[in-house]
Amino acid sequence: MTLAGIALALVLAQAEVPEEALERGDVDEAIRLYQEELERVPGERAALWGLGRLLFHAGQLERAAELFERAETLHGEHEYSALMLGAIREVELHYEEALCEYRRCLALDPGQQGAREGLRRVEALLSDLERFRRADRRVARDLGFAAAGFALLLLVAYWGAGRARDAQGAPS
Q1: What's the pLDDT score for residue 139?
Q2: Residue 112 — very low, low, confident or very high, per pLDDT cuts 50/70/90?
Q3: N- to C-terminal Cα distance for the chain?
């Protein structure tokens, strides 16, 4: 090993890794360390995933999705990226896209429990939404009938009041 290689190994051995910062509960430091790692090695998959995961939990969904998509562009499809993209799309309420990502994850790793749970959760949400839409249509239809009935009742009452006035000889 060259002297430069030994010096680099010593620096890297002394450098803090993002996981250590996370163990201390210092999320901001972990984010900073992942960003530094990506500056040194722009396509490093573990750093893309780690930073993406932290940004997801911080609610920075768009940036997190970009990192997981970049990891797939550079390193090919992977179940972890598909799982996290599914979770991001689910939180964004893009349920159809979430289904696609969870299914893709399961195609890559059929035993992926997180994707299986996400798929069940999103399918249940979509089923509930469809049931609510059907109920809303029925309620709207029933309200329409009720409004039409009420309008007819008002017309009959108005017509009846007019006939009563006419019968009494009152000017209308």
Answers
A1: 63
A2: very high
A3: 110
Spatial CB neighbours of 123, under 8 Å, sequence gap ≥ 6: 99
**Residue 140 CA to its chain's centroid (Å):** 29
- pLDDT by residue (tens digit) across 134-147? 876 776 666 666 66
Of the CATH numbers 3.30.720.200, 3.30.1330.60, 1.25.40.10, 3.20.20.370, which one belongs to the domain with range 3-140? 1.25.40.10
pTM of the model: 0.69
- What contacts 24+ positions apart, CB below 8 Å, involve 96-99? 98/122, 99/123, 99/126
Q: How many CA atoms lie within 13 A of 57 on its CB side?
A: 10
Domain limits, the chain: 3-140
Q: What is the CA radius of gyration of the chain?
A: 31
